[in-house]
Write a structure and sequence with these properties.
- With about 400 residues, the chain is of the alpha/beta class.
- Helix content is about 55%, strand content about 10%.
- The chain has a 6-stranded mixed sheet with strand order 3-2-1-4-5-6, sandwiched between helices.
- The protein folds into 2 domains: about 200 residues, no CATH class; about 180 residues, von Willebrand factor, type A domain (Rossmann fold).
- The longest helix has about 30 residues.
């Protein structure tokens, strides 16, 4: 009896470790694929979590096999292999389909605003000396400014532990003005000091909102290699401005310049909560890639209207209840899919009339809790708590089933 309890404890611990692993690696995965469309992100995320759950089940089987599986050992190996080959690609497809359905649910914000201009916010802290020793940033900024049409707004803020307004956000009126700005960048760009990203962004937002212009929005283009203390709620509120007016929004496209992708989590988060795009460029790469990222930010400017199924929404929405119901239904489908996967994988149809219903109920409860967390903690931290709960709910589907045989 003690041995049986110990084995059950080991398998339970293994399931908990699997849930933690699925969450941690899933978070890292979302950073690496952050530049991809949301439907691809959700497909890859669900495929990854299901793969971890599958691995947990295989390891649990190695620890202890129930009577049913002992009796059908040869059949189980073949069935489990076929189940994995069918259901893992199906997980990718379901992740994609549910995200597409969620993005269609409700009415999207108005798109295709007239592009007003760019406020460049560039990091000149001391750490840039190591990450950008050849001052590729300068050439990239100059290359971008050379593409800005006359009468389009342009502004430049340099920052380390303080912010320096190199050019106020205003229309570029002449070629002489353009040449003067380019020369000023060459003269003033040098690296020293600490890093205060939040202060620089708030300064940029405040300056851009001084203009009473119906052709909103403008775009902030943030370039940095570092980390600093940031209040994400404050950044998000400053980006949104008047939540009832979608044109009052100022997205932040971020360019992270460093070898490590994972260290760019803060820059990725800033882009996500403001509705911008995130770009990562490795140190030592082709300088033209950096210049292209600047140019691409302007060329692909638009409202990011897609809502992410497993991340918090950027905007307060009038149809928030409808979206909450849609999210619960779609995430519950993930749980139902996981439960069916367990039954087929174990080749034990008796699970259908035993604990499968209870497991699916747990998954639905997790989906409801996930949605409530995102509605009341509309921040990146709330998203992570919700995804942790979601991963735990899915792994509940894979808790030891052997005593039920």
């Amino acid at each position: 009896m003690r041995k049986q309890s110990a084995l059950n404890g080991v398998m339970l611990l293994l399931s908990i470790i699997g849930a933690v692993a699925a969450f941690l690696f899933g978070e890292a995965l979302l950073i690496y694929v952050s530049y991809l469309p949301f439907w691809i992100q959700c497909g890859i995320y669900l495929l990854f979590v299901m793969s971890v759950c599958c691995l947990v089940m295989i390891l649990s089987e190695k620890i202890r096999t129930g009577y049913y599986l002992l009796k059908h050992r040869r059949e189980f190996g073949l069935t489990a292999g076929k189940a994995a080959l069918i259901f893992l690609p199906a997980a990718l497809a379901i992740g994609i389909i549910t995200q597409i359905l969620y993005s269609w649910g409700g009415i999207s914000l108005n798109t295709n605003p007239r592009f007003q201009g760019t406020m460049i916010v560039c990091d000149v802290s001391g750490s840039m000396q190591e990450n950008d020793p050849y001052m590729d940033t300068v050439e990239s900024m100059v290359s971008y400014i050379e593409t800005v049409p006359l009468d389009e707004h342009i502004g430049v803020i340099l920052f380390n532990d303080m912010s320096y307004n190199l050019r106020e956000y205003s229309p570029l009126e002449s070629e002489e003005e353009r040449e003067g700005l380019i020369q000023l960048i060459y003269d003033e760009m040098y690296y020293y000091g600490g890093t205060d990203i939040e202060g620089a962004l708030l300064s940029a937002f405040a300056e851009m909102r001084e203009l009473d212009d119906p052709s909103w929005p403008g775009l902030v283009l943030l370039f940095s290699d570092g980390l600093s203390d940031i209040n994400y709620d404050r950044i998000r509120s400053a980006s949104i401005g008047n939540a009832s007016n979608s044109r009052n929004r100022i997205p932040v496209n971020t360019i992270y310049f460093s070898q490590s992708v994972l260290s760019g989590y803060q820059m990725n988060t800033i882009a996500e909560i403001t509705g911008g795009q995130y770009y990562h460029l490795g140190v030592g790469g082709d300088p033209s890639e950096l210049r292209n990222a600047f140019s691409k930010s302007r060329a692909e400017f638009n409202f990011q209207t897609d809502r992410h199924l497993i991340k918090s929404s950027t905007w307060s929405e009038s149809n928030i209840i409808i979206r909450a119901v849609i999210r619960i239904v779609l995430l519950s489908a993930w749980g139902v899919f996981s439960g069916i996967f367990v039954v087929v994988f174990l080749n034990n149809n008796r699970l259908f009339k035993h604990f499968l219903v209870a497991k699916i109920v747990v998954s639905i409860i997790c989906a409801i809790a996930f949605t409530i967390i995102l509605q009341n903690m509309n921040t990146d931290f709330g998203s992570r708590i919700g995804r942790g709960l979601l991963a735990a709910g899915m792994c509940v589907m894979y808790l030891p089933t052997y005593r039920w045989d």
